[in-house]
Design goal:
Blueprint (H helix, E strand, L loop, with lengths): L5 E11 L5 H11 L3 E6 L5 E8 H14 L5 E9 L9 E3 L21 H7 L43 H7 L21 E5 L4 E2 L4 H10 L4 E4 L4 E6 L3 H11 L8 E3 L2 H4 L7 H8 L5 E5 L16 E5 L4 H6 L7 E6 L11 H8 L5 E5 L11 E5 L2 E6 L9 E2 L8 E3 L9 E4 L2 E4 L9 H17 L6 E5 L5 H13 L2 E5 L1 H13 L3 E12 L5 E10 L4 E8 L2 E3 L3 H5 L1 H9 L6 H6 L7 H14 L4 E3 L2 H11 L11 H10 L12 E2 L2 E2 L2 H9 L6 H26 L4 E5 L6 H13 L3 E3 L11 H12 L2
Parallel strand pairs: 2-5, 8-14, 10-12, 11-15, 18-21, 21-22, 23-30, 25-29, 30-31
Antiparallel strand pairs: 1-3, 1-4, 2-3, 6-7, 6-14, 8-9, 9-13, 10-13, 11-12, 15-16, 17-20, 18-19, 19-20, 23-24, 24-25, 26-27, 28-29
The protein binds zinc ion (2 copies) and fe (iii) ion.
The site of one zinc ion has 8 residues, from helix 4.
């Protein structure tokens, strides 16, 4: 008879293995397989296991680790080392965490929406956590937003202010309980408390403040509600008056507000929901999804004015669910509370100061938010998921790449809709949404978020990457960080970063990239935004092989704000637009005199900068069709143009005019201008989309064939546009070429930090 030999093995696991019930899971699997030893969390966000047992039992244990782990856990590497020594352990134990940091690349999970078990307990009168608004377990609850430092233990989170009561502690220490080692465990006795105040912060005593807030919302009051990652401003979706008020005080005349619906069934009463959309809405991520308004859309038109879609999410905390208990409202407005040009508000004092004048009441809780995190926003193009904003529910989970980067890079992004990115090996950690980085507050937020991400992932950054623009706040920050830390600095052209992101995301070595957006600083210092770039990994760089026609940008930023200026600049070359402009003089802030100045400038032809921006062309079309005369939020004219086009068809069937690698846009706009009374706005808006998409696709196909490249990609903010994307796809695939869009990264500037990081980490020698 052969005697079995006992082995002793140390296992290091990297990935997302803290805050997902991994140690309790390891404990159960070890006990099940008759192993002894310990498991503990480490300061590098990884997990360390020591086991003693037979070869066979250990193999079964390792198999269980891979196959039976919770779907929230992500295992990147399992590193096993045989150890010397005799059996030392009498049983298997969860040890106190060690603060040792050794292995890079692990990270804590994103915030996770309330799970079904917790939701059931929330509603069960016999459960000790009945109606407890912050009920959580090892499978759900906040993670990223409460953690101050690693390892993920209660004392390193903002739950440290809430010592567990005896009941919670019993569950926490019971290996058979769902809350075994759940760091966010709490109950009505020991956990965070919720309370209602006036707009001045005076306490309003109420035994059921959450449901009271639900009632107040349905009556039309405006209330700031503190959540996991920041404050929302909430109100009714069916009444106009509070929305008018909210728009006035927030200085947001048109920008769409996100809403939170009580249930999937409620969503279906006002929006179209595909199977995939329903699945994502109800997933543990609970993102905001831009859903097409249905025929019978009955919510206030002031929620998403002149848009065909509306941003909807489902409740993701117990508190959210309870808001709907005592009312019949299908949904509440639930928009991020951020003062103009500031990040989302996260602290109670700050909320009182900055939101007090906007809202009627506050619904506070007394847990601090360690790191703010806005809701994520997603749109589906047919069956493809497009990130408008990748934030709560995703950050800081990494995007896994096929190849390992040559060095560790921090990408700081551009200016608008910004994020940061840490590229480490074959993982890219993209931060939560930072917003527009144009002032000290947002710069500080970006810097903090970047450093936090570096610490969380135990990264040793060697290179910092930023935009080519010499004056961006982010460029500035990159210079400072490079000097402070001795990092190498890499500046990456805006559209090249977009296309490089696409290449690395899909692991392609060469591509013809179509990149369309509002603005990016070109290598010639000019304003780019409708570019076709040839990029190959070998040449490590890019060639601008084609672009949209250069059009005058009269008055720089003013032209971006008032699309009629761009329209005037384009049409001026072909027709006398003075009469038409005068008919629209109320859309110029200074009326007739402003029009005369614009015309004078065009006549003289000096002091006019040019732009190849796709966004400006769409703006001009929107103005010609009378769809939008003032851009009050980023992308507004183009978004409203798409919303108009969605019911249209290609009535003009314009043939792309291409001269010396440039797609004409003047003739296209002129055609629309001349036929503006003959056809419907929807058909003309669609025709403009079809022209641009087919023209750019044709140019890209030409360049791909010339250079023997098999793949064409589409990136930049305009790739959020469904008509442009699907039309390009059809044209390019019909030519027998592969068409790529982003799947894991936002095509807009939220994906820029990733693009910069991959140029620094993969392409630069
Ligand atoms: Zn749960
Ligand atoms: Zn408790
Ligand atoms: Fe861009």
């Amino acid at each position: 008879m052969k005697r079995w030999k006992s082995l002793r093995i140390k296992i290091n696991i990297t990935g997302i293995v803290q805050g997902v019930g991994f140690r309790p899971f390891v404990y159960r699997m070890a006990v099940k397989n008759g192993l002894k030893g310990y498991v503990r969390n480490r300061g590098d966000a990884g997990v360390e296991i020591l086991i003693e047992g037979t070869k066979n039992d250990i193999e079964n244990f390792l198999k269980d680790l891979r196959e039976k782990k919770s779907p929230l856990a992500q295992i990147h590497d399992i590193i096993t080392t045989k150890l010397e020594g005799k059996n030392e352990y009498e049983k298997f134990t969860i040890y106190k965490s060690s603060s040792e940091t050794e292995l890079p690349g692990s990270v804590i999970p994103p915030d996770i929406a309330i799970c079904n078990d917790c939701l059931r307990e929330l509603r069960d009168p016999k459960d000790p956590r009945y109606e407890y608004f912050f009920i959580t377990c090892t499978d759900c609850g906040p993670r990223f937003t409460i953690i101050e430092k690693l390892p993920y233990d209660r004392e390193n989170t903002t739950m440290q202010d809430f010592p567990m009561c005896d009941f919670c502690r019993t569950e926490y220490t019971d290996p058979l309980n769902r809350r075994f080692h759940a760091q966010t465990v709490a109950c009505p006795r020991c956990g965070p408390k919720v309370y209602l105040t006036t707009q001045k912060g005076e306490l309003i005593k109420h035994e059921d403040p959450i449901r009271e807030v639900g009632k107040l919302l349905s009556e039309g009051f405006v209330i700031a509600i503190k959540g996991y990652g920041g404050f929302h401003v909430a109100t009714s979706t069916t009444k106009d008056a509070p929305l008018i008020r909210l728009r006035k005080v927030k200085h947001r005349s048109e920008k769409p507000f996100a809403i939170m619906a009580r249930s999937l069934e409620a969503v279906k009463t006002f929006a179209e929901v595909s199977g995939k959309e329903a699945e994502l809405l109800a997933s543990y991520i609970r993102p905001i999804i831009l859903l097409n308004k249905s025929e019978g859309y009955y919510l206030s038109d002031l929620i998403a004015p002149a848009l065909h879609n509306v941003g909807v999410m489902l409740p993701y905390t117990g508190l959210h669910y309870m808001l709907f208990d005592k009312v019949d409202e299908p949904a509440f407005v639930m928009t991020s509370a951020n003062p103009p040009n500031q990040p989302i508000v996260k602290d109670n004092e700050e909320a009182l100061k900055t939101l007090g004048a906007t809202v009627d009441y506050f619904l506070f809780h007394n847990r601090q938010i360690a790191h703010r995190c806005d809701d994520s926003v997603i749109r589906m193009h047919d069956k493809d998921l497009v990130f408008i904003r990748r934030s709560r529910g995703y950050a800081p989970a990494p995007i896994m790449l096929k190849e390992k980067a040559k060095r560790c890079v921090a990408g700081l992004g551009g200016e608008l809709n910004n994020t940061a990115c840490i590229l480490l090996g074959n993982k890219a950690f993209i931060s939560q949404h930072i917003g527009d980085v144009e002032n000290i507050e947002t710069r500080d937020f970006l810097e903090d978020a970047t450093k936090h991400l570096i610490n969380l992932t135990n990264s040793k950054v060697e290179t910092v990457a930023c935009d080519l623009h010499p004056k961006f706040t982010t460029t500035n920050l990159a210079h400072d960080l490079a000097n402070e830390n001795g990092w190498q600095l890499v500046q990456v052209q805006h559209h090249y970063a977009h296309v490089a992101a696409l290449m690395v995301e899909h692991d392609v070595k060469e591509i013809v990239g179509i990149c369309c957006d509002g603005y990016g600083y070109g290598i010639d210092g000019e304003a780019w935004g409708g570019e076709i770039l040839l990029c190959t990994r070998e040449s490590s760089g890019f060639e601008r092989v084609a672009h949209l026609e250069k059009q005058p940008l009269i008055g720089g930023d003013l032209a971006t704000r008032y699309p009629l200026r761009t329209t005037a600049g384009i049409l001026y070359k072909k027709v006398n637009v003075e009469d038409w402009l005068l008919q629209n003089k109320e859309h110029f802030p200074h009326g007739e005199s402003e029009i005369q100045i614009v015309l004078h400038q065009l006549e003289k032809g000096h002091n006019i900068i040019g732009t190849t921006s796709c966004g400006r062309v769409l703006d001009a079309v929107a103005a010609v069709l009378g769809i939008c005369f003032e851009r009050t939020y980023e992308g507004e004219p183009a978004m409203k143009l798409e919303s108009t086009a969605i019911k249209g068809k290609d009535i003009l069937k314009l043939k792309p005019t291409i001269k010396s690698n440039t797609l004409d846009t003047t003739q296209m706009l002129l055609e629309i201008f001349e036929k503006r009374k003959k056809y419907s706005k929807a058909d003309l808006a669609y025709s403009a989309h079809a022209y641009l998409a087919q023209g750019l696709a044709k140019l890209a196909i030409e360049k791909a064939k010339e250079n023997n490249v098999k793949t064409i990609g589409f990136s930049g903010g305009a790739a959020c546009n469904e008509i442009l994307t699907l039309t390009m796809q059809k044209t390019i695939e019909a030519a027998g070429l592969q068409f790529l869009i982003h799947k894991a990264v936002p095509p807009g500037d939220g994906g820029l930090s990733f693009g910069q990081a991959v140029v620094g980490g993969f392409f630069q020698l």
